[in-house]
Amino acid sequence: MPEAKTILVVDDVPMxxxxxxxxxxxxxxxxxxxxxxxxLEILRSENIDxxxxxxxxxGIDGDELCETVKLEQGLAHIPVVLLxxxxxxxxxxxxxxxxxxxxxxKPLAREQLIQVTRHFLETGxxxxxxxxxxxxxxxxxxxxxxxxxxxxxxxxxxxxxxTDCEFLPKAELELDFALPDxxxxxKPLAQVVWSTESDDLRxxxxxxxxxxxxxxxxxxxxxxxxxxxxxSFVDPGGAMGDMA
Length: 244
Known about the structure:
Elements: E1 6-10, H1 14-23, E2 29-33, H2 36-45, E3 50-54, H3 62-71, E4 80-85, H4 90-98, E5 102-106, E6 108-109, H5 110-123, E7 132-141, E8 146-154, E9 158-163, E10 172-177, E11 189-197, E12 204-212, H6 215-228, E13 242-243
Parallel strand pairs: 1-2, 1-3, 3-4, 4-5
Antiparallel strand pairs: 6-13, 7-8, 7-10, 8-9, 9-12, 10-11, 11-12
């Protein structure tokens, strides 16, 4: 019989820790910590398979905890999901720079939390985030130029875009696009992670990572990904709920 997986939930708010334990009880064993300092003690002494941590905590906050985990040799293999505050657009940029493997906005929908945690418990860091294929026009803009392209797939962390323009790695782009069947314009800041020739040799494919994204856009993206996610990432039963 395989060994049970363990999730470490880190938040200074007792109610959130209790709700997280309840929501995730069917997914894995749950350990909790009320601070980043306490979380590091647990991580260094116990076998933890996934960390879910609030961004804003006294002392060591979520992004500092994440960065420490990713830099420490014995912990770097553990996926870290950071919980962002909806009214702070800088949270996503902080999470990306800290090396977070995924991020969610508060208040959290129960099903989204379960989907994300199951993904990492089943795959660890061997696979990327769930992606949805699409063919959506997207405008890409830098301080010097503007180009149009086609988004071929998207995840919570970024998107694949084909365009006839070449962008250098690490270039930061302002994006402007809408999800299929949506009228809401999404305008996140993204960074070029890699570039290669597309199957159509006239075009370039760019892997983009979202750097900064507002809470409303992230929630709509979460709903879109959740709707098209593989069934194995969705909780088979129970009512939906939100965690503040």
